[in-house]
Amino acid sequence: MRFVSTRGKAPALGFSEAILAGLAPDGGLYVPETFPRILGTSGTLVDTAIAVLAPYLAGDPLAPSLKAIVESAFTFPAPLRWLGPTLGILELVHGPTAAFKDFGARFLAECVCRLPLPPNPVVLVATSGDTGGAVASAFHGRPGIDVVVLFPKGRVSPLQEHQLTCWGGNVRAFAVRGSFDDCQRLVKQAFSDRRLREKRTLLSANSISLGRLLPQQAYFAHAAMEWKARTGRAPGFVVPTGNLGNAVAALYAREMGFPIGKVAFALNENTTLLEYSQTGNYVPAPSLPTLANAMDVGAPSNIERLQHLFPDLKGLQAATEAVSSYDEALRKEIQSFSDRYAEAICPHTAAGFAAVPKLPPGDWIVAATAHAGKFREIVEPILGRPLSLPESLRALLQKPTECKEIGIRYDDLTAVLK
Ligand SMILES: *Cc1c(COP(=O)(O)O)cnc(C)c1O
Hints:
The protein is α/β, with parallel strands linked by helices.
């Protein structure tokens, strides 16, 4: 399988080359040249992941290792639970950092570590919270690869900050005295700095990486087949959406022929995608802070993949829905979900459930994207009770942290990369 740039002006690459490249040289994102069709698979999530990914890796140097990669990456489940005859929840929160990003980050790390690496590799990532923790956890202790994580000082939750700064060894986290946009700008500048890249090989691990995107198809495919086997109907997925990495993976699984109805983007007050899906006009906006901070995105980084998949508005509207819910609705949903099911959900997952009544009737599975405990400063006061943390998070909280601050000048970043 070859991967082409969304802008069509870069040579096609194989899977390994595409993950080492990150962005295509024409500034576009790599997308599969065609979508393999799969009529069905059976077995465990790992079996499904292998079947889904095999055609994408066909002919690639990593192809013979696919089984080992998936088995090492997907070491925790993605249970589908039934909340009612037409409503389900797909729990993507059982990984080491309790967010869905563990699936993609761990798959990417397993791939990268099996490739012959150029000299002095460093994974450089900017995070608004969950990505950095998942990437740090996935790459921690890997010989020969450094990880540098930039996060905006004071703007991630205390638990997220702990999760970014507790690793040591080959992982260093820096609190940038600025916003997430400053962090992202520094990272982009580093990736376009030829002189720096002569000394250090920079590797990207943000959601534009195919090494994160493609494996995410597996849990959507697996859950869709399970739902179909039980009900005879194809479910839609409600995906709490920020940079569109997870939702595009669901749409890719749908392209592959898995029984998936529509994919609904559940949004917060950042409504760029809502307008886009209503009018076809893409108007990026500065991001607004909300309770669901991992979705505070005004210019989704995977938008070109969505546009490439659906070049016209009709096609987009036939396959997707978009619903946005403001903070007040998220608070209400956290409370009413707890009243109905005696369980806590995180603010992102709440955006998913808040969207359901506004969607066309049908079978919907909501993706739970993070464990509620990860956002306990928000969820506990709403529910008025303490939340228990999953074992993996409790273990992380025992580890001491170490964090340095840097400013927002590019020199501040190059000084730590040298
Ligand atoms: C990253 C994240 C999202 C948004 O996912 P995208 O792939 O960026 O659309 C939603 N919820 C949580 C908890 C996240 O960490």
